[in-house]
Amino acid sequence: MHEKERHRIILSAVQEKPVVTVQEMVDLTESSEATIRRDIAALHVQKRLRRVRGGAEAISPPQFIGLAGRPFSVNETINASQKRAIAREAVELCGDGEPIIINGGTTTFQMVHFLTGRRMPIFTNSFPIAEHLLKHSKNTVMLSGGTIYREQNIILSPFDNDVTRNFYARRMFMGAQGLGPLGLMEGDPLLIQAEQKLIDQADELVVLVDSSKFRKRSSLILCGLSRIATVITDDGIEDREAKMLETAGVTLIVARKSAKEESSLQA
User: Fold this and answer.
1) How do residues 11-65 score in pLDDT, each as one tens digit?
2) Residue range(s) occupied by CATH 3.40.50.1360 in the chain
3) How many whole angstroms separate alpha carbon 259 and alpha carbon 201?
4) What's the mean per-residue pLDDT of the chain?
5) Any idea which architecture 71-252 has in CATH?
6) Element (DSSP H or E) covering residue 100
7) What DSSP character marks residue 112?
8) Domain limits, CATH 1.10.10.10, in the chain
9) Contact call for residues 179 and 214 (beta carbons, < 8 A)
């Protein structure tokens, strides 16, 4: 990742929470600890943040605490072709008229390109997903209520009396920060709280993750493998990871990039 992009992510992170640790920045940028420490030192000298023991804080502390994790705009550029292929397979599971839930995320967002010709009720907590479907499809779109988190482009509510409880879905589609033997993992307690409510409203949970997510971990578990009906991923999945899903009774779909996507990568 280029230095300018790392600096943008670091500065965004310190505006989202009071103090960001070096390890959190390493995870966000997928850079080395030494690189992050140099970045913090440079930004401190430029008076763009304040260096503290083990991390950094904003010069002007944030008034509103955001979510842990990379911004939507950064995530959508990572493994983009794999995400699009995964999303195509996800939409193949949908039948016209079937109500579905699409949780906000950069992989689930790619589903909108394949839903343009469909007609179904869709509940989402994502502004980009809702906006695209309203402009480019005839689907019925329902948005959740709550607080808008600009960096992740999602709407979350910790309260039980929101509109979520009034929507039934045949399937819920979602991504995750990580996927392992203990189940789906996320990086923020508020995400866990809001997503658990959504999961309760669906018969089946379909997880859309590129294969790198099998090697990532978080301290927060959203749900066990037993709750997941299907996992859609790319052909980078390893045999032991596929075996893990098979043992848990989870259906695995491996998405292949289209010929057009393959040729664009080689160009």
Assistant:
1) 887 877 778 889 888 888 889 999 999 999 999 999 999 999 999 988 876 555 5
2) 71-252
3) 37
4) 86
5) 3-Layer(aba) Sandwich (3.40)
6) strand 100-102
7) G
8) 1-63
9) yes
pLDDT digits over 207-243, tens only? 999 998 998 888 889 999 999 999 999 999 999 999 9
* Alpha-carbon gap, residue 136 to 240, rounded angstroms: 40
pTM, to two decimals: 0.73
What is the H or E stretch that residue 72 is in? helix 72-75
The yes or no reply on domain 1-63 and CATH 1.10.10.10 is yes
User: 188-193: long-range contacts at Cβ-Cβ below 8 A with a sequence spacing of 24 or more?
Assistant: 188/67, 188/68, 188/69, 188/220, 189/220, 190/67, 190/156, 190/158, 191/67, 191/156, 191/222, 192/220, 192/222, 193/156, 193/158
Bridge partners (DSSP) of residue 102 are 124, 173
Q: How far, in Å, CA of 41 to CA of 80, rounded?
A: 32
DSSP secondary structure code for residue 126 in this structure = B
Q: Over the range 218-246, which residues count as b (16 or more CB within 10 Å of their CB) and which as e?
A: beeebbebebbbbbbbbeebeeebbebbe
* CA terminus-to-terminus distance, the chain: 21
pLDDT number for residue 75: 60
pLDDT at 72: 54
Q: Where do the DSSP E strands lie in 191-240? A: 202-208, 220-223, 230-234
